[in-house]
Amino acid sequence: MGKKELKPCQQPLTGVIEVPGDKSISHRAVILGSLATGTTKVRNFLDGEDCMRTVTIFQSLGVKIEKDEKTLLIHGKGVKALTEPKAPLYFGNSGTTARLMIGVLAGLPLFTTVYGDPSLTKRPMDRVVTPTRQMGANFDGRENSSYLPLAIRGGGLTGISYQLPVKSAQVKSAVLLAGILADGMTEVVEQAETRNHTENMLQAFGANVNKDENSIIVKGKQELLATDIYVPGDISSAAFFFAAAAIVPGSNLTLKNVGLNETRTGIIDVLQIMGVPITIANQQIIGGEKIGDITISKANLTSATIEGDLVPKLIDEIPIIALLATQAEGTTIIRDAAELRVKETDRIAAVVDVLTTLGANIEATDDGMIIHGKTPLTGGYVRAYDDHRIAMMIAIASRITSESVFLDDEASIAISYPNFFADLEKAQQE
């Protein structure tokens, strides 16, 4: 696609919108529904490109999955009914699909080959290959199976106790998914709590999961039973509208049915530290996940220091937080976020490049960035780096630039938020 011109638009964001279903939860619902026995109904499923990769993969493994708008029906027949695929499995650009499915495929008594697009092929997979190999899976691939493509001969796993070397919910989830397919008990010990959707959803499907401080233990060879899942609105997608409402004068915007899982609400903590007026209403718990309606208004922002155990709770929101920081008084410091270097792109380098081009005073560090505010933003030609979160951050930045912003390619946004521009336009027309 060609360059998209994003014209400055200071029109306030008002009214009510509903963001798409949570990407992390949608992936896990497909995985566990496909491993379970019975028909699982998934409401408010995110039908973006990443989650549809996971759907297609299980269809290739013999699972019947029907889709009707935002609802999935997964006709699971249990693990033993899964069949060896006739062709290599394609993960596209989806790191979640890749890492969680490597855990699953390691535990299935099947031979599979898996690959991804050029961006995913550069992302490290040894972090999930290493523990599942310790459990007994066989891998073959580049640099001791550190990168895609991979050949996997799964099955015959034995549970292990594994201490996570990185703060990653994807790695934790891969080991737990392999663990429920293995013999014996599998324990994962975290450095700090990461998003816990896998543990919550395993319990919803009837699995026995024991949690003790930073330790999660699952018993192998558990049979999962189908259930109905409601997918909350994705707080990582909502974060872009939080930011827009906080920086565009006159804004007062409500986002309905947003997921409020305590392992994901770091963005709300940071917004409150920065002085953003936030109200949360209609809180309820559905399927072990808390949801609520969040209202955000324009704020006079102040700087923040973001570090430590807070970082895993907002790792995907750091690009949009960096944009907020350009409009805050004082210096914002983000550290302990080296994981950003191995996302869809090197997000530290990408954020610094984009915001510098738009006139911000920002510098990269090894594990984060330093943003000096408050700075007016201009316009210019910027790259999205084929990264949906960078592309959406650019679109929000253009709301307050003095000149047009030219985005090289918006296609990546379809990964997590196919209707992003329509919702942005709706919020500024209410």
Describe the structure in brief.
By secondary structure, the chain is of the alpha/beta class. It has helices spanning 23-35, 49-60, 95-107, 126-134, 142-145, 169-180, 197-204, 235-247, 266-273, 318-326, 347-357, 388-397, 420-427, and strands at 4-6, 14-17, 37-43, 64-68, 71-77, 89-90, 111-115, 138-141, 150-153, 161-163, 185-189, 209-212, 215-219, 228-230, 252-259, 278-286, 289-297, 305-306, 330-334, 361-365, 368-373, 380-382, 405-407.
Which descriptors apply to this entry?
4-stranded mixed beta sheet, 430 residues, alpha/beta, UDP-n-acetylglucosamine1-carboxyvinyl-transferase, Chain, 13 helices
Describe this structure in words.
- The structure is a single chain.
- The chain has 430 residues and is α/β, with parallel strands linked by helices.
- It folds into 2 domains: 4-21 and 232-427, Alpha-beta prism (UDP-n-acetylglucosamine1-carboxyvinyl-transferase, Chain), CATH 3.65.10.10; 23-230, Enolpyruvate transferase domain (UDP-n-acetylglucosamine1-carboxyvinyl-transferase, Chain, Alpha-beta prism).
- It is built from 13 helices and 23 strands.
- The model has no long low-confidence stretch (mean pLDDT 94).
